[in-house]
Amino acid sequence: MPILLMKAKRILFFQKNRCQGCEMCVVACPTGVLDLSDEYNMRAAQVPRVKPGKEKSCILCQRCEFACPNWAIYVIDEQPGEKKLAGEGAKV
Amino acid sequence: MSPQITTFPNEKPELPLTLATMGGLMTGNFWSYFCGGCGYGIIFHLFDKVFVEEQLDPYKFPVIIGIGCYTQGNTLVPAASQRVTTLHGRAPAMATGIKLANPAMKPLILTGDGDCLGIGGNHFIHLCRRNIDSVVLLFNNSIYGMTGGQVAPTTPPGSSTMTSLGPVFENRMDGIKLALAAGATYVARTTVAHPRTFMHYLKKAIKHVGTSVIEVITPCVTYFGRKNVNDGGQRMDTGGLLLDWIKARTIWNNQAKLLSEAELAGKYVIGEFREKDRPEYATEYEKVKKKAMEGR
Amino acid sequence: MIDEEKRYIPPGKYVLMGNVAMAEGAMAAGLTFFGGYPITPSTEVPEHLVSRLPEAGGAFIQMEDELAAINAVAGASVAGAKAMTASSGPGTSLMGETISMAAALEIPLVICDVQRNGPGTGLVTAPHHNDVFQCKYSGNGEYEVIAYAPMSCQELYDLTIEAFNAAETYRCPTYIMSDAYLGHLHEQVIIPPANEIKKRVIARQVVFDKPNPEKFTFADSQGNVKIPPPPVLGTSNFPTMLFSQPHGPDGIPVNEDQVLKPITLLTEKITKNIEKIAKTEAYMLDDAEIVLVAYGLTARVCYHVVNAARKQGIKVGLFRLVTIWPFPYERVKKAIASARAVVVPEMNLGLMAGEVERCKPLSTPLYKVPKIADIHEPGEILAAVKKANEEAQA
After folding, report:
1. Non-local CB neighbours of C339 within 8 Å, separated by 6+ positions
2. C64–B285: do the CB atoms touch at under 8 Å?
3. Which residues in chain A have their CB less than 8 angstroms from residue B17's CB?
4. Where along chain B do its domains lie?
5. Going residue by residue through chain B (296 aa), what tens digit of pLDDT does each one get?
6. C241 in contact with chain B, both atoms CB, cutoff 8 A
């Protein structure tokens, strides 16, 4: 499921086939939202998942996005448009 | 035309930054050769964010890349940027030539621990000494990753590598102390576990006039991680384990001031170490030129 | 404001040291960046340019070693400057890797090699033409270079301008092979007026309305090798990336099964243009039975030897190599085809004699006249010519 969770029109999106199973997002998450699932993607990597029941703990802080070497997990607006590139930056 | 393109089917919505990379422009996808758990994927994400957010003029900020695993970041830097890949260790020397030929430019030098502190040590020292207006991003993964995990000048004693028999007994050098001694004017160290700090330092370095050196401690899971164990005796063969190992050894410089030398051994001290202004080389040379032109 | 006129010294007759003439030639050719390192016997070049370059709005820097110097020169050339360095044998051997990179990326570079005795440190003030193969083969990989061998201070001035033009046109490492004696020789040099010099110089284009479609040497639809002008960093005319692996037209490295074409083009751009690049001179060759083949200062002595030998009735002529690389095999073949003997005096143990030997008929004898760490006395070469003549008559 590429959309891991959605909050206030922003989604935590996961590019499953890009993941290499390195677990850095799991380690980086401050609220312990993610863990390694039993699923394998087409790269034979074990991919992360949102722990059942922990969706509400995600604060969309983007730490998992900044910890992913493959840009496979990221926070994005539900309808990303042209101006999103500048808008994303304003958060930092 | 193209070398082996390794992309995997992606779904919408794609991260807009991905499409702004050079690889993204060519393939519409994330094109990267980096290993799982490699810090360079993270670093280039942050570098691209800063490049795009600060709206850096690609003609003013050429990206000078040394030889190492990060050379593969050619596919991940912004498509608009102008890329020059140098020989191993020579990036600071080429950047000096570029800066003097076109003083309006500010080279962004991407280099590694072996590239900058090993073969390129001399050039690095003199770039800092001259205070040439440039940004040196020194990626320190404590190993020679591209060639298969050989010992580097920054490998911690006690580690296991491909070209050291038994635990490494060579002393580990500190690139920040070298930059400080050589005279760089904005010196900072951070790790990939501190992404927002890295972006903050990078933005500062871009605005700073003079040589800025930002060392980034990054994990090399495939070689350093797999061949070494953490405090719990586990082989660090995932990015998460190696990242934890780095985080456990990281200490901010104001906290480090309270510790003794023995306690600091083996730790990565992060933070800003120097931020001052000193006459910059190209600016001073412009004065020399002006005087010479008026002279005769 | 850069005063372009400060680049040129007032026209007239000067007495200039060889190294200074070479430096002035570089200034006349449009030099805007010099990165160097002091080494005897080339130190006068940076010492002269330290004040001349900034006057004309250029940049001079003494780098921390020769590796840094040549890399700074390569970087400056990439950024649009006409760049040069000056060194001697031990320095140019350090520069090998970067010269190889510059050849791969087709960056125009000029290297002045004021040759001295070797190997190793050598006798630093003694001339020794022992870098004639180093200049071609010091860098790894297969590529072609252009190397000039001047024999007078006037030629040091004029051939330097030509060397810069050759570097711009053919985008390869270009050498000026001077030596310790020639570099310090004080001789008359005639400097022409600035507007005449400007007509001879191929300037670097740094402003582009739109980028050239091709950034590197390519073969057009008829198979002709075409060399576009060099791209400039900081402008729209720049390839996708510069990375010194065999690459396609956009700079991106090609797959391993496609490397033949880019590597072949690097060589063909010189070998297919050899008639335009190679410069040779013939003196009294028409009826020559003994042919002298020489370059550099040795050639200068050979002119006197030819005159003296002719007075003694020996039919001798001189074939002079003004460019030693690319070696003009066809022309040398023609020049010595009907000779009864070939004499190759060199200020080394006989390096180029090997190349000459490849061009001569098997039956023609070749005599080497080596001279180490000094210039030939005319009598030494004359004795060899006489010996060659006697043995040829027998």
Report:
1. C288, C289, C290, C291, C360, C364
2. no
3. 71, 85, 88
4. 36-295
5. 456 777 898 888 899 999 999 999 989 999 999 998 999 999 999 999 999 999 999 999 999 999 999 999 999 999 999 999 999 999 999 999 999 999 999 999 999 999 999 999 999 999 999 999 999 999 999 999 999 999 999 999 999 999 999 999 999 999 999 999 999 999 999 999 999 999 999 999 999 999 999 999 999 999 999 999 999 999 998 999 999 999 999 999 999 999 998 888 889 999 999 999 999 999 999 999 999 998 75
6. yes
Residues 6+ apart with CB under 8 A from C71: B86, B87, B90, B93, B94, B97, B123, C98
Q: Give the CB-side neighbour count of residue B267, counting CA atoms within 13 A.
A: 19
> CB–CB of C71 and B97 under 8 A?
yes
CA distances from B42 to B195, B278, C329 (A): 8, 32, 56
| Superfamily of domain C4-200 in the CATH hierarchy | Thiamin diphosphate (ThDP)-binding fold, Pyr/PP domains (3.40.50.970)
Under an 8 A CB cutoff, do B41 and A71 touch?
yes
Interchain pair A20, B18: CB under 8 A:
no
Q: Does B119 touch chain C (CB under 8 A)?
A: no
Q: Could you tell me which residue, C24 or C1, shows the higher pLDDT?
A: C24
> Which chains sit next to A, with 3 or more Cβ pairs under 8 A?
B
Hey, what amino acid is at B74?
Answer: N
Segment C10-68, tens digit of pLDDT:
999 999 999 999 999 999 999 999 999 999 999 999 999 999 999 999 999 999 999 99
Residue A92: pLDDT band (50, 70, 90) is very low
Sequential DSSP letters for C77-123: HHTT--EEEEE-HHHHHHTHHHHHHHHHHT--EEEEEEE-S-STT--
CB contact under 8 A, A23 and B8: no
Confidence category of residue A9, pLDDT binned at 50, 70, 90: confident
Name every residue in A having a CB less than 8 A away from some CB of B: 2, 13, 15-18, 20-24, 26-28, 42-43, 45, 63, 65-72, 74, 76, 80, 84-86, 88-89, 92
Query: Do residue B101 and residue C81 have CB atoms under 8 angstroms apart?
Result: yes
The whole-model pTM stands at 0.94
Answer yes or no: do B195 and A43 touch at CB < 8 A: no
The nearest CA of chain B is from the CA of A18 a distance in Å of: 6
Is pLDDT at C92 greater than 50 in this prediction? yes
- Within an 8 Å CB–CB cutoff, is residue C75 touching chain B? yes
- Check if B105 contacts C (Cβ < 8 Å): yes
Measured distance CA(B88)–CA(B113) in Å, rounded: 11
In chain C, which residues have their Cβ closer than 8 Å to the Cβ of B102? 79-81, 233-234
CATH class assigned to B36-295: alpha beta
What CATH fold (topology level) applies to the domain C280-393? Rossmann fold (3.40.50)
Tell me yes or no: is domain A3-90 CATH 3.90.1150.10.
Answer: no
The whole-angstrom separation of Cα C112 and Cα A37 is 64
Nearest-angstrom CA–CA distance, C72 and B282: 14
Q: Mark yes or no for CB contact B100/C33 under 8 Å.
A: yes
Identify how many contiguous H helices and E strands chain A contains and give both numbers.
Answer: 3, 5
Rounded to a whole number, what is the distance in angstroms from the first to the last CA of chain C? Answer: 71
By residue count, chain C amounts to 394
